[in-house]
Amino acid sequence: TYKVGVTFNTKGWYPIGDCARRLSCDRVFFAFGIGRRDDNIRDGLIRAISFTYA
Fold first, then answer.
1. Alpha carbon 42 to chain centroid distance?
2. Is the whole model's pTM more than 0.70, yes or no?
3. How many C-beta atoms lie closer than 10 Å to residue 33's C-beta?
4. How many domains would you assign to the chain?
5. Beta pairing class for 22-25 and 2-8
6. pLDDT tens, per residue, the chain with 54 residues
7. 25 is in which domain, residue-wise?
């Protein structure tokens, strides 16, 4: 079981989307993002992405 946490820079409503940027842990890939693949809006919205394996 993986637990994923996202810390945003400010409070508010954030749209959900798909992006090509990925993280891997123990051969499991996680993808995070919003909008199109070339959007970089997410870089200003998200302060941290953390995940643990339990």
1. 8
2. no
3. 19
4. 1
5. unpaired
6. 778 887 877 776 666 654 446 667 677 776 665 556 666 555 667 778 787 876
7. 2-53
